[in-house]
Amino acid sequence: MAQIEEHYAQAFFEISTEKKTSQSDLEQALFVEQTLNTESALDFLLHPSIKEAEKLRFLENTYGETVSTHMMGLLSLMLRKHREEYIVPTLNKFIEMVNRHSGRIKARVVSAIPLRTEQIESIRTMLSKQMNAIVDIETEIDPDVIGGFYILAEGKIFDGTVRSQLNKMKNVFYKGSMKAKIVSASALNAEQLEAIRDTLSRKVDMKVELKTEVDPHVIGGYCILIDGRVFDRTVKSELDNTMKLLQRGELNGI
User: Fold this and answer.
1) Which residues of the chain have pLDDT under 50?
2) 236 found inside a domain
3) Is the pTM of this model over 0.85?
4) Beta partners for 107?
5) 90/117 same-domain check
6) Could you tell me if residue 16 is inside a domain?
7) Range of the domain at 196
8) Domain containing residue 184: CATH number
C-alpha cells in the first residue's frame, strides 16, 4: 500500500518545509533508515508478541537524543498506529521528496557485468539532461539481465537490455503476427493495402496486421513503419533528401 508511506512522508515533508529543517531532517532520515533497515531491528519492530511500550522504548533509547522532536514524533505516531512496517518506506519516500525538491534524484543502474566509470558517467550525464536534475547513481549486478543494462529513476524504467529485446521478440512470435503502420497522403484502396500486406508478410515471414493513417503532409506516396524500421516512398522524403544535398552543395551544376 504505497499510499500509506506517501501520506506520512508528505505530511512530514510539509512539517520539515515549514520549520525550514529539510537538510537536517534529511540527514536524520538517512541515519534512522540505515539503522532500522536491518534484519534484527525489523524483526523486533514487527514482532507481534512484543508490546507497543517496549517498541517505543527501543525507539526512544536509540534515537531520542539524536533526532529532532518532530522526527521522533513521526516514529512514535507510526508505532501507535501500528504502521511499523511502513516506517522505513516512509523515510525512503521522504528522502526522495527532499532530493527532488532540491533538484537531486537517485537512479539505479542494473547491469549484467560491472560498468566502467566512463559508462556510468555517460549514463549520469544523459539522465541529468533528460530529467533536468542532479543524478546520484547506484549500481547493481544482475546476471539475469543477459547483457546491456537498465535504469530505474523516478518510477521510470529505461530498458536497453538483451532480455527486454528477447521479451519483445517472444511477444511478437507468440502472437504470430507483426504490426505495421502505413501513413499516406490519401486513403489507399483495399487492393493496394492487400498488396502491401503480402509484400511485408513475405519480407518478415509472418502475418502482418496493418494500421493506416492519412497525412497530407507526406505530399504523395506513403511510408511504412514496421519493427522499428521505416520504408519511405513519399514525395516529402524525396524533397527532404534533395534539400540536404543542396545544403551540402552536392547538386551544383544540375
Assistant:
1) 1, 251-254
2) yes
3) no
4) 137, 153
5) no
6) yes
7) 176-248
8) 3.40.30
